[in-house]
Design a protein that fits this description.
Layout (H helix, E strand, L loop, with lengths): L1 E3 L26 H18 L1 H5 L4 H16 L7 E4 L3 E2 L2 E2 L1 E3 L5 E3 L4 E4 L9 E7 L6 H12 L3 E2 L11 E7 L3 E8 L2 E2 L5 E4 L3
Parallel strand pairs: 8-10
Antiparallel strand pairs: 1-9, 2-7, 3-4, 5-6, 7-8, 10-11, 11-12, 11-13
Length: about 200
């Protein structure tokens, strides 16, 4: 059960609450700006690499192309941050989340904007699913709820990630859908479906 919400000065990897990156400030990009960058990057995938969608290529390869378009075009908007895919570390330990009160499972988000080695600057975490993948979407939703939660479980601050934005992207044949998560819950006001022809 959630037990503690004292995160504002906590970074588990920073002794005495002193940040390893004193010159780095929390990213204040507006949600609308991040959304614009992400939508543009996904549309570039459909425009330039539709073969990957039509041939149902592995999702890791598809996300890598979205990451490439995002990083190539917009990295300057996230200066000081790392933009990673399949990143599975929390400090020096495996990245894990609670699936219930006691069970922790290792996980690696599809795409994150963060600062390696420090949980204080976790900005955005994204999960992607393609239309041919029939896995339960609730698994991804639960991940994003956990990653954006600012309340620790069992006082385990090392599993408190507090990402500002959680994003689920579902890639369809001729469109894609985006769901947003903030503060441990769905932020439905920004959910939308985008046509690749727009």
């Amino acid at each position: 059960m959630p037990l503690n919400n004292n995160y504002s000065t906590l970074c588990f990897n920073c002794p005495n609450s002193k940040c390893l990156y004193p010159g780095l400030k929390p990213n204040n990009q507006k949600l609308s700006t991040l959304r614009k960058h992400l939508v543009s990057s996904v549309k570039k995938l459909y425009a330039n690499d539709y073969h990957l969608i039509s041939n149902m290529v592995n999702e890791v390869d598809i996300v890598a192309h979205i990451w490439y378009y995002f990083k190539s075009n917009y990295a300057s908007n996230y200066q000081g941050y790392d933009i990673d895919i399949e990143y599975n570390r929390c400090g020096n330990d495996p990245k894990g989340i609670y699936y219930d009160k006691y069970e922790i499972r290792n996980t690696r988000p599809d795409f994150i904007i963060h600062k390696r080695g420090c949980n204080k600057y976790n900005f955005a975490v994204m999960e992607f699913k393609c239309y041919w993948n029939y896995e339960d979407r609730n698994e991804d939703y639960n991940k994003l709820i956990h990653f954006t939660n600012n309340i620790s479980y069992n006082n385990d601050f090392q599993k408190l990630y507090n990402y500002t934005h959680g994003i689920f992207v579902e890639l369809l044949k001729s469109s894609f859908k985006i769901k947003w998560f903030k503060n441990g819950s769905e932020y439905s006001g920004y959910n939308a479906e985008y046509s690749i022809g727009d």
